[in-house]
Amino acid sequence: MSLLNLPYPILDCILKLLSPMDLTRMSEVCTFLRDRCRSDPLWELHMKQKWGGVIGDVAYKEWLWHITTPKEKGINQLNQHNNQNGSMGPFSGTWPMLYLRSYLEDCSYLNSSSLANSFMMALYFSLENGNFWFPAQIYRGLYFRDALVRYDSKTDNFQARQQNAGWKIMGNNIQWDKLRAPPVDTLPSVRYVSDCLQDLKPGDHIELQWKSSRDIPYDWWYAVIGHMESCNENENFCRCRYSETLIVEFEQYPLGSRMRRVKLLKNGDQCEESTGCYGGIRKLYSEEEIQRWENILSRGMAGTRVK
């Protein structure tokens, strides 16, 4: 029996077992298999399997912009508008004035018949080939920092850039476990609008935006909500969650440090020269996220603590 005569459900099960390269070869056999092998649901499986931990909703939105713009404006018009190599804008300007929040080094192949109508397949190979610089967050010591990242297939690692008087190289050979997809769709220069402030209580795990001065982007730090000084920490009588003030405890700082235990107002910015600027708060509900932070802290504490 020919492969083409198989019932669709059985054929799809077979195609799901193929590697990305085998799928690509299979798509060149005939028109029917081309459409089947390049379908978004099929390539979404490969995207999740390889890139799911580092690619998030923000990156998908960026990619949608890149892949639809050539169709709307025409690839030749875009090339003339940008630069000679057909890239979607240069590494210049200030965040986020870099054609949204990503960078595509070469957009000419998006006009080819093989990838023009294959959203997920085109994204997969743009990532694999290192053409697509996508938004991600990099683990830096004891916090996560926003960056633009691309994959290097030769080393199976990543290269990252950050906006600092131009898009400077932030690091090379960055390993997979140092990256994560941005958990919220908020620019690093913008204060995150928290939706959990009234529900926070002692013992809750959070991520908090912090930066050392007003004119730089925020980083994301891990902390735990603590008890007010006036509280006896008895569950039955604790009223800390009803206070307009939060006690935030940074376990990465040693006991006795002025940064170990910080008092923050639930509403309004808090920025001082001596302590830096605190932004939005994101409550952690996932045990996986909490465990990752605890692993990071344990590794950091085994080395040198933040002072």
From TrEMBL:
Residues 1-46 form the F-box domain. Pfam families: F-box. InterPro entries: F-box-like_dom_sf, F-box_dom. PANTHER family: CYCLIN-LIKE F-BOX, ESTS AU081301(E20138). This is F-box protein. It comes from Glycine soja.
